[in-house]
Design brief:
By secondary structure, this protein is mostly beta strands. The protein has one domain: Sandwich (Immunoglobulin-like), CATH 2.60.40. It is globular, with a radius of gyration of 19 Å.
């Protein structure tokens, strides 16, 4: 799982990639708002610590916002700084918005005239990057999803995307409270992801002696439950791999998920 998450982090950092292992996340300025026509600002970053901007911005090339009615909502004022990316979103509808950055790329390595070569990038650039005489070619497809959820007014259902690794809420992601239990389902290409390791990490780790991560495993239906020990932001991470590739010459597909949810004080 960790190798899949590391490669996905490299994918998220940039295309072409920077081959470094870091966490990726998005943090909205608010997760629950009353009424409509409200605005939020979302920070997106790649870093060494959850929710601290200490490494690099998250690329927003794969940004996709799904409005409560299922239509695509348009983010505004996209900006890429030195340590984080930001964008604004107007919540014109009542209900829950699914905000995600989806990175679909490949990692290839080979030898050319006896020297090691690598390619990190979009699948469509692979053919041009790899020469016909490439030796010992290895191609891995990677599909990563980084997301968060925001609700304006009354919460609405969050529908599965059906591609890659994703979180399907059983308990609504904007109805979480400390001291209470919540249930979720992990899906892989729209089907339950059974026996999957999921890690949940509360924010504010720099102010604690221990990270405080919570490790769970999905059941046969891809479901897991967690009792929130404290309020605050939580990072939800999972990863896996399979052979269901859609890129020519790839033999393995690595999938990752990184979500941000907010747990409130009851």
């Amino acid at each position: 799982m960790k190798s899949a998450a590391k490669l996905a982090a490299a994918l998220a950092l940039s295309l072409p990639f920077a081959a470094q292992a870091h966490d990726v996340w998005m943090v909205p300025s608010s997760t629950v708002l009353s009424g409509t026509d409200s605005w939020i600002t979302v920070d997106a970053a790649v870093g060494n610590d959850k929710f601290y901007f200490n490494h690099a911005p998250l690329r927003l090339d794969g940004l996709a916002v799904v409005a409560p009615d299922g239509s695509a909502a348009e983010a505004e004022n996209l900006n890429r700084g030195k340590l984080r990316s930001t964008f604004d979103l107007q919540l014109k509808q009542s209900g829950t918005y699914r905000i995600a950055v989806v990175n679909d790329g490949v990692f290839a390595r080979w030898k050319e005239d006896g020297k090691p070569k690598r390619y990190f990038g979009k699948p469509e650039g692979l053919a041009q990057a790899v020469p016909a005489n490439a030796a010992d070619l290895e191609v891995t497809q990677s599909l990563g999803r980084v997301e968060t959820f925001v609700t304006a007014g009354k919460p609405s259902a969050v529908k599965p995307v059906g591609r890659g690794l994703e979180l399907a809420p059983v308990t609504h992601p904007n109805d979480l409270y400390s001291g209470e239990s919540a249930s979720f389902q992990m899906l892989l290409d729209g089907k339950p992801a059974a026996d999957l390791d999921v890690t949940l990490v509360p924010g504010g780790a720099r102010y604690r002696d221990k990270v405080g991560e919570i490790a769970v495993k999905t059941d046969k239906d891809g479901k897991f439950s967690v009792k929130w020990p404290q309020p605050g932001l939580y990072w939800v991470e999972a990863g896996t791999e399979d052979a269901k590739v859609t890129v020519a010459k790839a033999k393995k597909r690595r999938l990752s998920y990184a979500g941000t949810v907010e747990v409130l004080q009851p």
